[in-house]
From TrEMBL:
Protein name as catalogued: AraC family transcriptional regulator
SMART domains noted in UniProt: HTH_ARAC
Classification via Pfam families: DUF6597 (PF20240), HTH_18 (PF12833)
GO function terms (MF aspect): DNA-binding transcription factor activity; sequence-specific DNA binding
InterPro entries assigned: AraC_XylS_family_regulators, DUF6597, Homeodomain-like_sf, HTH_AraC
Location of the HTH araC/xylS-type domain: 156-257
Keywords: DNA-binding, Transcription, Transcription regulation
Amino acid sequence: MFYQSSKPNPVLAPWVDSYWQVQLDAGPTPKSETILPNGKIEMIFALHGDYTVVNRQTNKIHQAWLSGIQHEHLHISYKGKSNLIGIRFHTYGLFPFLRIPVNETVNAVEPLTDVIGKLYEQLYESISQATSSVEVFSIINLFLLRNLDHDKVKQLKLMEEITRQLNLRPEQPISQLADRMGVSQRHLGRVCHDYMGVTPKLLARIFRFEKSFSHLYSQKEEEDFKALIDLGFYDQSHFIKEFKRFSGMTPEEYKKRAVESNNFL
């Protein structure tokens, strides 16, 4: 497998986390991966390979697609040779490039034709003709710079701080976060809805879940639930119920599958 990543142009860095490319040959037998919610947004171009992306709302094969903020797990199946190019946006990073309400992308996997229209065809063709990863990432940089709506970036600092605070302390009450930031709880909710498409509470739960499955994966001894309670789970029963709601499996099932599989995120 070949994997390479790159940081975006500094002008785009507030919105885009990274670019990446993966090339692999999965062979003739279909393979599958499980993708768990993590608060990130992915725009993916399958230059080679056919992919089926499945969640409760989506069951389609896409040449290129946008995966918005997810609050349910995704299943991705594929076989044969693959060449994937990806743009990984920050939690709030899609908004200034989007021409549709950002909440329409939440928990959905949509063809890029439905999201950016004919511009998708131009970008896909340019990427397909590139001869190196460096050229691919340069093309993406130029595309995003040309399509960045500067009128939509006025709330950047607030969005950055909201995301940072919820990621750092997902267990904190939203009312306390609003007070600390000097805004009303209503305004905080409106900013999250307009710029990220989700409520502050749901975003905090996604971040808390991400921390919990990272903790489970790294835990080597008998599970220490104190760390999970510190994340805001009331007790073991609450943790198991919340974990299953986001992942579709119990913590024990997750840990077993994660240890056994290389294609599990």
